[in-house]
Design the sequence.
């Protein structure tokens, strides 16, 4: 199933006139998932004319201001529309305290259910119809999480010639086999899907990593991502600064993508020291390691779709 990814902002530390704070929205089958929610996130949503009331979950990496200060506005904005489904907010320790304090201090009117889940270790943090969201621990100056949204295994390729050789009439029986059912022929013989289909195939996987040192476990958790959205905050020249502040360079992000055998890397969360023209330095350093690297840019949209 196709995913659409919308880059709401690409900046780190502070919003700039031409660069909003890092936030990413993923859409699958009408459901929306928001990764981080810095100041002004709702402005980018409005610019892209996206229906924020359909957001299923907000996934928060950590509670530094540039990743969470947009949440109160999003909560109040969502109260302006009819919503029957709960909104999930998933994040590290203190995210529940932050949400509840914001609601209390601002005396928010909330007309829908908010479910806050704090996460402290790797594992499945949310499951939906045909997909799951996994968390994993990063290494920043405060507790920080990365996330992957991954579809369940897809059925294998259906081979019509195998079905014909087994005298399976074309029609409903073919469809049932492709859906994973065992069918019974008129002669009483049962046919299982594996007799006419190839092995199951992985679904689409999108990973989000920001604000971390390059710990070895990251590549394992984001392995085989169709799209890895990963911070590349500094150039190679500022590797010492990245280490001190516990961030990734573009080169380190590319090494993670290469080790993880990702299909594509989108750099994000740029230091405000880099102008739009300067970002080509980050891209060049990443592509030297991982040629399938691109620069994410504000209000960009991408479609990720595994072939049938």
Sequence:
């Amino acid at each position: 199933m196709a995913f659409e990814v919308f880059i709401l902002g690409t900046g780190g530390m502070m919003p700039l006139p031409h660069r909003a704070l890092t936030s990413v929205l993923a859409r699958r089958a009408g459901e929306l998932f928001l990764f981080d929610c810095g100041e002004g996130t709702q402005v980018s949503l409005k610019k892209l004319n996206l229906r924020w009331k359909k957001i299923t979950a907000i996934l928060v990496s950590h509670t530094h201001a540039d990743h969470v200060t947009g949440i109160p506005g999003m909560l109040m904005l969502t109260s302006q529309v009819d919503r029957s489904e709960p909104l999930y907010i998933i994040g590290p320790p203190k995210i529940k305290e932050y949400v509840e304090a914001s609601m209390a201090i601002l005396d928010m009117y909330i007309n829908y259910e908010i479910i806050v889940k704090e996460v402290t270790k790797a594992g499945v943090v949310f499951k939906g119809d045909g997909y799951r969201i996994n968390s994993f621990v990063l290494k920043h100056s405060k507790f920080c999480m990365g996330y992957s949204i991954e579809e369940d295994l897809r059925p294998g390729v259906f081979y019509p010639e195998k079905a014909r050789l087994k005298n399976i009439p074309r029609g409903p029986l073919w469809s049932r086999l492709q859906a994973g059912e065992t069918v019974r022929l008129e002669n009483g013989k049962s046919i299982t899907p594996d007799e006419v289909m190839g092995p199951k195939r992985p679904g689409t996987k999108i990973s989000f990593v920001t604000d971390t040192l390059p710990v070895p476990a990251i590549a394992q958790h984001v392995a085989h991502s169709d799209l890895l959205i990963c911070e590349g905050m500094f150039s190679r020249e500022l590797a010492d600064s990245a280490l001190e502040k516990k961030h990734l360079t573009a080169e380190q992000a590319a090494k993670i993508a290469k080790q993880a055998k990702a299909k594509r890397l989108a750099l994000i969360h740029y230091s405000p020291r880099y102008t739009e023209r300067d970002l080509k330095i980050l891209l060049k350093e990443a592509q030297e390691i991982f040629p399938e690297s691109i620069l994410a840019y504000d209000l960009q949209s991408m479609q990720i779709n595994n072939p049938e």
User: Anything to note?
Assistant: The mean pLDDT is 94. The first strand starts at residue 3 and ends at 9.
